[in-house]
Amino acid sequence: MESVVSMFAIAKDIGGWVGYLNGLEPNMQNLKRKINDLSDQKSDIEAEITSSEDMPRKRLKKQVEVWLRDVSRLKNDVQRLDQEVEEGSVFSRLRLGNRISTKIQEATKLEEKGKAFDGLQVDEPIGRLLMPPTEDFVETTEARNVERVWECLMNDEVRRVGVWGMGGVGKTTIMKHIHNKLLEETDKFDSVFWVTVSKEFNVRELQREIAKELKVCISDDEDVTRRAKELHAVLSRRERYVLILDDLWEAFPLGMVGIPEPTRSNGCKLVLTTRSFEVCRRMPCTPVRVELLTKEEALTLFLRKAIGNDTMLPPKLEEIATQVSKECARLPLAIVTVGGSLRGLKRIREWRNALNELINSTKDASDDESELTSSCLLESGPEKYGQEIVRMHDLIRDMALRITASSPRFMVNAGETKKKVPYQPWSDDLQRISFMYSLINELPITPPVCPRLTTLFLNISYESTLQVIPDSFFTNMPCLEVLNLSNSKITSLPESISNLENLHALILRGCNQLKNVPSLEKLKALKRFELTNSEIEELPEGIEELVNLRKLNLSFNFRLRTFPSWKLRRLSTLEYLIIDFTGVKVSTEDLLCLHQLKVVAVHFQNVKELTRYVISQQFQGLQKYHLIVGEGPEGRLSMGKKFSISYESVPLGSGVDQLVLPAGLESFRVDGFHDPISLSAIPWFKDAKDLRECFIHQCNGLESIFSSSTFLEDGQIPLGTVERVSLVRLPKLRVLFDEIAPPHNIYFNLKYLLISSCDTMKNIFPVQLLQNIPNLETLIVFWCKSVEDIIVEIAEVSDWGNHQDYSNSISLPKLKKLQLDELPRLKSIYNGVMVCPSIEEVYIEKSPMVRRLPLSLHMDGEQATPPPALKCIRAEKELWESLEWDDPVTKTILQPYAR
């Protein structure tokens, strides 16, 4: 009897399910009708608001603002819901039925609320009224330019807008105003995307930048057509957006990149800024030319930047100011830059000199560079491959080229990597030539005649195959002062270089096939000599005769073994000595003979020599250093205050215990140290309070990094300031901590943690420890064959003190990147939920036992969304499909980010 009753109950349930499924489509259609009615109601209300916008002292009621937002949100929700109904399985459609009913009720309530409004606006209190714009502002050129672009965007007949004008005229500034203004126009556009396009147009790079702005990932496939399809699919799901492409140099079909056509139906618009009207015509766009400032506006802007608003200008300075403003060609960027360079200067001579330099500068750039930077004509950039760099805005570059088009004569053909740069006759009045980063594969056999040439940049593109420079090539360049031949494939330098007696700088970086360098004996004027990444085995002959040499860089010449002391000591004017990553070992006595040293990167024979130098007075005055004992690390990207010690080549007992780490040390690397069980127990680190980076490699006895026995009374701990820690090939490393909880008042500044080839570790973090590391941004774990958990619950660690109750959710507020690779025993990232609002990238590869991705979704009101910064989740397809989810909705929401 019971089984018969059960059968009837099951049949009843099945009947209910079938009814639910049969009613799903009618309910969805009912919901769509209600959304259409709501949209009409919203349009009527917006029209009423627009018609009363010119009424003074009125503002929109808060409840009306909320209602408009709620209608827009509901409309978007229903669009997504409709898509899920179309694509969902039977069981997912059953679940969707309840959501549809909820949305119908919500739409009904919104419709009733919209009908019940008693007026849409209220009187604005006098204290909140905005100051009306002054007459001169409304009529300024900039205001007119902004207004013309804005009118195009508000015109439904215009879908593409091309903002064009010469460099520095203010196109980007205008679009920044427009961008900010669009963000306030939430009723017309849902989102605004800004992408800066590089001069060297590259489809793949533009696709990447657009995807980055959209906060989505597209495949790394080299096939741009496939990437275009992916990007098109992402953008097609969005409506009512404005895509701004800033600084476009050439036209392209939108479909080639993956940008959908902006139409009235999707409510999207495309805006581009360019220097070329032809680009606007070929895109095609409605062109808006950006007007130059008037003479009066240019002078006013210049004076505001040069002297501010409070100082009266003497008549003579006003005359010079007018001339400077004129030279800036009414371009806002030029005026702001030059005006800023004169700010604080009050003497007539200084202003007149600035004017003369603007018109015709013939001074050597190397002498006036720490001046150009301070006056904003050059901008300091980050170090790249160990070299300090500066940047010049393309407007300033264009101005310089125009000024030097006649006299002195420059020939600049830099960055031409798309095609081979043809050789052209070099006239005898040329003073400076630049083929920097250009594609040059050969030079003429007949030497050019350039008796006035002072600067020659042939530091060509890495793609170039230049292998031979004719021996006589530099014969007719007697005045040459700066010569850069970096990145070439030459095996030997021409003999004619030996006779360039006026040469001040010889730069040979990245000439990785260079074996032979001629004598430098006659180059006594040489101040800067750089020869890196080459195949040389001996120092160039006559290097000891370079008595005026200030900068010597011989780094990464791995075949170079010796630098005789007597030769090094003769270079008494050296300020920069960079010979790391070579076989050369120096002594403290050698360095102390060079009294002008500011930057040092060298290898010492042993720790005793290193310690002797660290306690010397000369060391205290260094600006940057990289001091190495042993073979040193594999590479260096930038100079700083760094130590590297390799114990594989440093015998124990050679002064290791007496090593002193100096104040201000930023980076420390140690290889092959066998004795300490805990890194923080080493005495060296107790006073290293400025240490920011620590790389530990092949220390076979190391079992932990932090030891509670090293806690200090003031709550500090050695290595507590370190931001970056890399742990590689540590066979006995068990834990980061020695399983005794740090006090709650001790916080580690760790931001980056990399663990590789540490085969004894079974887990990375006990959950309790995470409270002490609030700044963690990057966690990378790979090639650790015993790791089973990344974060473990307290209950799984028996020896921790200070037990606390932890919920099933942990917060990693600053974590941006999580990379787990080649972890064959990894079962769990975390058993609970990880709240990571800043997460951008997740990589899980070649870790087949992982079954959960414990990433928490972001809640926007009642709506679950991906973490706001998320860009990409990379995992093998098999792993992604095998993951188990606490809620199937989570997988659906994260699916677009999976790669």
Description:
Helices cover 29% and strands 18% of the residues. The strands form eight sheets. The chain has a 19-stranded parallel beta sheet. Strands 4-5-6-3-7 form a five-stranded parallel beta sheet, sandwiched between helices. A hairpin with a 2-residue loop joins strand 8 and strand 9. It is globular, with a radius of gyration of 34 Å.
Summarize the structure.
Helices cover about 30% and strands about 20% of the residues. The protein has about 900 residues and is of the alpha/beta class.
Total number of beta strands:
36
Fraction of residues in β-strands: 15-25%
| Structural classification | alpha/beta
Overall, the morphology is: globular
Uncertain residue ranges: 1-21, 124-139, 361-369, 371-376, 418-422, 796-806
What assembly state would you assign to the polypeptide chains in this entry?
Answer: single chain
Radius of gyration (CA) equals 34 Å
Helix percentage: 25-40%
Biggest sheet statistics: 19 strands, parallel
Give the integer mean of the pLDDT values: 79
Secondary structure tally, helices:
21
Distance between the termini: 54 Å
